[in-house]
Design a protein that fits this description.
Largest sheet: none
Strand content: under 5%
Helix content: over 70%
Order of helices and strands: HH
Number of domains: 2
Structural class: mainly alpha
Number of helices: 2
């Protein structure tokens, strides 16, 4: 019986944490003035930059290997 109480307590804490994240995070973002679309735009831009750098590096390594 004690194990069941402990398990229910842990499940309750997990559900409370999920609720706090679901409600609190958007409120914090709204209070800070951060727009979710802006975050997504920045993330996509960073991914594009990373892809360009990776392709440039692969081309550089390929040219270097051909010249050796």
């Amino acid at each position: 019986m004690k194990d069941m109480k402990d398990m229910l307590r842990v499940i309750g804490i997990i559900l409370l944490g999920i609720f706090v994240l679901a409600v609190g995070v958007p409120l914090v973002f709204a209070a800070a003035g951060i727009v979710l679309g802006g975050i997504i735009h920045i993330t996509v831009s960073l991914i594009k930059i990373a892809v360009v750098l990776a392709v440039a590096y692969l081309i550089l390594v390929g040219v270097r290997a051909v010249l050796k």
